[in-house]
Structures are given as structure tokens and as C-alpha cells.
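Notebook entry, structure prediction.
Reason for the run: the old model in the group folder had no record of what sequence produced it. Starting over properly, with the input documented here first.
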Amino acid sequence: RTPVATRIVNQKRRAEIVDHVGKRCEAGAQVYWVCPLIEESEKLELQTAVALHAELSAAYANRPAEAGRLSVGLLHGRMKPVEKAAVMDAFVRGEVSVLVATTVIEVGVDVPNASIMVIEHAERFGLAQLHQLRGRVGRGAAESQCILLFEEPLSETAKARLKVIYESTDGFEIARQDLAIRGPG
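New structure, fully documented this time:
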């Protein structure tokens, strides 16, 4: 497996990440972009998969013609199994450049050409989930990266989790640190 470089990026620099992802896709890369929610919540102001899919579809449709159009797919748990399978198959075949998804892609997905994982509101995910999601990339020969987008202000616990996932790729060490941060039970 190819090592995965992990970057922690403030949401304020989101436009740079959208541009970076577009350029990498133009060069043939494929990207997972994970959101914590499917649709808007009255209680939480978080990036949703449906809204991000619309945003990225519009952003990448407006790229110069010579750059090529990038296809953006959407995958979440409320979709019918046949719809989910069709989107995943298109991603596996390389027909979808960016797959906007919820954590349904956390396990059981193997697309060696996918070399970038972007995680929205990474501060809201647990260490095990972040480690599993990061494990979806780095399966091929391409240089891979995991970009953890966070929203300020960060709690001390969120800072500690992001520091652990940034500094380690060892699942056993991440589990030990998770226990230290959360405590037993």
C-alpha cells in the first residue's frame, strides 16, 4: 500500500481544496469527499452530501473546456441499493471523478485509482472512523492524501483527535490514543 499523507485544513481554505481536487482529477485521480450528513439539519450547520454534490457539480462544470468536465457522483445510505451499486460501479470504472458520500464508503470499498480522501467537518468524526475513511485511499501506486477539513472553534478533544490522526497511520496506536482521549467504556 502507498503511504497516505494527511493534511489538516481550515474550512476557510475550502476553495483551495476544491481547486486542488479539480486539478488532480484532470490528471486522472479520483476522489472521495465525505460529509457527515445527507441533508440539512435544523440543529446542525454542517456541510451536507446533497448540497456539496450540487456545489462541486457546478464548480467543475464551469472549468475550461480544455481541462475536461469532471463527473461528480453522490452516494448515501438513503439511496436504494440498486442506485448505490450503479454509482459505485461508475466510480470503479472511472466514469465518476469525485464521489461525494456519507460514511457508507467507510468499509468494503476498494478503488485503487482513488488517491484523495477529503473529509468535511473532520472534527466531528471519531478516530476509528477517520482511520477507516483514510484507508479507502492509498490502495494503488499513486501518491495519496487525506485532507481533513475542520471548522473553528475546535474543542480540546477535537484538537487531540486531529493531532493523533495526523501523526499516526498505525491502527493500534490510534486505538491506544483513542482510549486515552475518550477513556474506557
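Summary: The helical segments are 14-26, 49-61, 81-92, 127-134, 156-167, 171-182.
The old model has been moved to the deprecated folder.
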